[in-house]
Amino acid sequence: MSRLAFLILVICCVFFPLRITAQLLITKGAEVLTDNDFFYLPKPSDRYYTSGVQIGVYHPELIRHKILGSPFRSLFLFSTRHPRLQQTYAVLLGQYLYTPADIKDQSINLNDQPYAGTLLLRLRKVTANSRRQLEIQQDWYFGIIGPLAGGALTQKVWHQLRKRPAPQGWDSQISNVPAIGVDLQMLKKIWLVANNNVGLEGRTGLSLGTLYNYLEAGPQLRIGRNLRLLGRWSNNMSSKKLRIETSFHIRARWQIQNTLLQGPWWSPSLIPQELSLKPLIALGGVTLLLQTNKLSIDLQQTMITPQFKGAFQHHWGTIHLAWGL
């Protein structure tokens, strides 16, 4: 990585901190992640970002894959073979569902979150620098927003299994439009004290594309015994003892555009939403991590302030499983 490229990334880290998982960094392995507002322990709900499922595989040799190697080499920035940097690549598939505040209401409210489903394929590159304790995650996503994403079927089946009321408004969901964009996420150590048991990091990033456009920034505090140093792969841990760690994060997000709330900006006639997007919102959460050298599970509770005028504060829970090879 050139000095200029690294300087640009450091500046982004300081001024534009985004979400990245500090607790886990695998060079090769697999992961399963599920979000659901039903998992929010204090008060489960069923609105806004209501559920998401993502599966993925990681391996540093994906860049040499016969089919995937070409897009990986073409899409990602800052390619380098510097001995101090470690890199891995991932392919991930995810589905994410969004609903209004009241899924039993059959009428269309143009001042509320519309029904929307997304199905995304992500190509990911993760770069780790253990000397500078810096981690950079670059994603390109490709997919669909609309009925072809299968959101209506997924939520109806999930509600039948839980014997919950069926959602009534999926017929009015956002029409089929393409989803393509890039996410850049970074994590940088600020300080590490108390024999590596307390750490503070800056979370940085941005998102540009047809799905949403925003900048996000905030600190993360980790507390635990013998914390993983940033830039070191989790599945390279030599100890087989269980590691327990708790983290707290808060970040501010500057929303520029959100297709899932406002409809597609390039074709507003597809969904004439009238809601007023709030330019600045806040997100916060707490995570509990349980990890050995090959297996980890982290449980997270997330809160987000109202994203548009008249919206409610929203919460959801996350379960994240990962296996390192």
Helix/strand-derived category reads: mainly beta
Low-confidence stretches: 1-23
- What letter string, H or E per element, gives the SSE order? HEEHEEEHEEEEHEEE
Biggest sheet, open or closed, and with what strands and sense?
A: 12 strands, antiparallel, barrel
Quaternary structure type: single chain
Radius of gyration: 20 Å
Distance between the termini: 27 Å
Structure, explained:
The chain is mostly beta strands and 325 residues long. It has 4 helices and 12 strands. The protein has helices spanning 3-15, 69-75, 151-162, 259-262; strands at residues 29-36, 48-59, 85-99, 116-129, 134-145, 177-193, 198-209, 212-224, 243-258, 280-291, 295-304, 314-324. Strands 1-2-3-4-5-6-7-8-9-10-11-12 form a 12-stranded antiparallel β-barrel. A hairpin with a 3-residue loop joins strand 10 and strand 11 (295-304).
